[in-house]
Design a protein that fits this description.
Structural class of chain A: alpha/beta
Helix content of chain B: over 70%
Oligomer: heterodimer
Bound molecules: adenosine-5'-diphosphate, magnesium ion
CATH class of chain B: Mainly Alpha
Radius of gyration of chain B: 22 Å
Shape of chain A: globular
Structural class of chain B: mainly alpha
Distance between the termini of chain A: 35 Å
Largest interface: A-B, 22 and 21 residues
CATH superfamily of chain B: MetI-like
Shape of chain B: flat
Number of strands of chain A: 9
Strand content of chain A: 15-25%
Order of helices and strands of chain A: EEEHEHEHHHEHEHEEH
Chain lengths: 265, 250
């Protein structure tokens, strides 16, 4: 089954109390199977809305979304979508293993394609914490458990909405490296929402730039850095070229005073 | 047992103080020496056990009735969300009726026997239970609900894995608070004419101006209320370990 994501002229309208809000305006987007792609844009430009449309949490006002040729609803019912929210959203009464196991419990024994929870826990580096409750873990560890949970059914599509936004920079960088390793092993198509330019460039094959009011995709920057990625690449020329292109896409050329600031993520 | 030291010490202090001041003749006759109250119980263990069991039986029956009815009402509100407000308001209205005034009216309606006492006990404790269940069923946050949606969980699985566990802390809070209310309700009902029960003892003692016995009945009421509350608190601390552990986490 194909794993690509295709959006065709997708618009989303929220009915506000006073006026309607056009959160997304005719968004076209194509993500080939197996890629790692980022969405970047100012807050409120509709990144989360776009992700929630793909995850079948919201229904588009108009336009079409196809996930491997299926509707989002069909893909969701086939458990082809894994979602990692900004907050880990673990169930506080379940241990790490029980949280990672939850999708398997819900699917039941009918679907045999799931990975073993312990295998996923190892993959995200939480071995030894299988029986810990969420509140006994740090924020980064909780988010790792959430990633393990999102991957345990081997989804064809992995959606990540600012998954490490709440973490400190050091943890965040380590988590990003791990996420790339996990993604490479799992072979899923990944869509990451972020508002860090460096993070978007470091992680992705392609960065889509969004603007707000109405939410639109205004540009796409291909990232041709080799894989697997490592932190040394962030010092390289190609990396800065990509960062500059994304920044230009976000702000235009006038937004850059003097030498290019070095940005960590 | 942590957290019990201070209450025990202060209770002992008050008792010793009362004993001493009463013996010194400093207290009015409506406050008997605690030793006199305890002696009453010691001399007459059957009086204590018979009447406590009668009250406990009435309270437990009322408690179970209230639990069944509030659970059914909450389940109805969960299935038909439009009824949520109506169920809540009905519970509140019943709770607002003063039991003292309602008891004689209900006695005329259904007679003064055990069913009346069970009904009064049930009416007295239903609202905290209802609040616990009704608040509890809404306790899961929107992100957790979204998670279940993304996992395409059935309604039954959503209840099993999310809504019920999330509701439990609220349900237990309600059940705990309701336990002493059921005891007090049973005792109030016994005032309307019962030949057994802590309430009957209390009423008899009041009319015969047996001060020590009045205080004994007050003491028994406190013990029954605290005891039934304690049973639920104990059950809670075993079943909701995750919650207590999370709350005590630094
Ligand atoms: N459920 C909703 N109802 C009404 N407005 C919404 C809703 N969700 C998002 N919006 C609005 O849509 C716009 C885009 O929101 P969002 O997708 O969350 O942005 P981002 O994730 O890029 O910060 C914002 O203006 C937000 O207020
Ligand atoms: Mg967002």
């Amino acid at each position: 089954m194909s794993r690509d994501i295709v959006l065709h002229a997708v618009s989303m309208l929220f009915h506000g109390r006073e006026a309607d809000l056009l959160a997304l305006d005719k968004v076209d987007l194509e993500i080939p199977a197996g890629r790692f792609v980022s969405l970047i844009g100012p807050s409120g430009c509709g990144k989360s809305t776009l992700l929630r449309l793909i995850a079948d949490i919201l229904k588009p006002h108009s336009g079409r979304i196809l996930l491997g040729g299926d509707s989002p609803r069909a893909a969701r019912l086939a458990r082809a979508i894994g979602v990692v929210f900004q907050a880990p959203t673990l169930l506080p009464w379940r241990t790490v293993r029980q949280n990672v196991e939850l999708p398997l419990k819900i699917v039941g024994s009918a679907v045999a394609r799931g990975a073993s929870p312990d295998e996923m826990i190892r993959l995200v580096g939480l071995e030894g914490f299988e029986n810990a409750l969420p509140h006994e873990l740090s924020g980064g560890m909780q988010q790792r458990a959430a990633i393990a949970r999102a991957l345990v059914l081997r989804p064809r599509i992995l959606l990540l909405d600012e998954p490490f936004g709440a973490l400190d920079e050091i943890t965040r960088q380590r988590m990003n490296l791990e996420l790339l390793r996990i993604w490479a092993e799992s072979g899923t198509t990944a869509l990451l929402v972020t508002h860090s330019i460096a993070e978007a460039v470091f992680m992705s094959d392609e960065v889509h730039i969004m603007s707000a009011r109405p939410g639109r995709i205004t540009g796409t920057v291909p990232i041709d850095l080799p894989r697997p990625r490592d932190l040394a690449m962030m010092r390289g020329r190609e990396f800065f070229d990509c960062v500059n292109k994304v920044r230009d896409g976000l702000f235009g050329y006038e937004g850059i005073p003097g030498p290019v600031p070095v940005e960590a993520f | 047992m942590r957290g019990w030291g201070l209450p025990l010490v202060s209770a002992a202090f008050v008792l010793i103080l009362a004993e001493a001041t009463q013996r010194a003749g400093l207290l009015p006759s409506v406050v008997p020496a605690p030793s006199l109250v305890l002696l009453q119980a010691w001399d007459n263990p059957a009086l204590v056990s018979n009447n406590c069991l009668a009250t406990l039986g009435t309270a437990t029956a009322g408690y179970v009735v209230a639990m069944t009815v509030t659970f059914a009402a909450s389940a109805l509100a969960a299935m038909l969300y439009r009824l949520y407000g109506a169920v809540y308001n009905l519970g509140l209205t019943l709770h607002a009726i003063p039991v003292i005034a309602a008891t004689p009216l209900l006695a005329i309606l259904i007679g003064g026997g055990p069913p009346l006492r069970v009904l009064i006990a049930a009416l007295s404790c239903q609202f905290p239970m209802l609040v616990g269940m009704m608040q509890g069923m809404r306790a899961a946050d929107s992100r957790q609900r979204e998670l279940m949606h993304v996992l395409a969980a059935s309604r039954a699985d959503t209840w099993r894995y999310l809504l019920l566990p999330a509701a439990l802390p609220f349900v237990f809070a309600g059940l705990k608070i309701a336990a002493p209310s059921a005891i007090l309700g049973a005792i109030t009902a016994e005032w309307a004419g019962a030949d057994r029960g802590v309430g009957a003892v209390m009423l008899n003692a009041l009319f015969s101006f047996d001060v020590a016995k009045v205080w004994l009945s007050v003491l028994l009421t406190c013990i029954l209320s605290a005891g039934t509350y304690g049973i639920w608190a104990l059950a809670e601390s075993h079943l909701l370990r995750w919650k207590i552990s999370a709350e005590n986490f630094p």
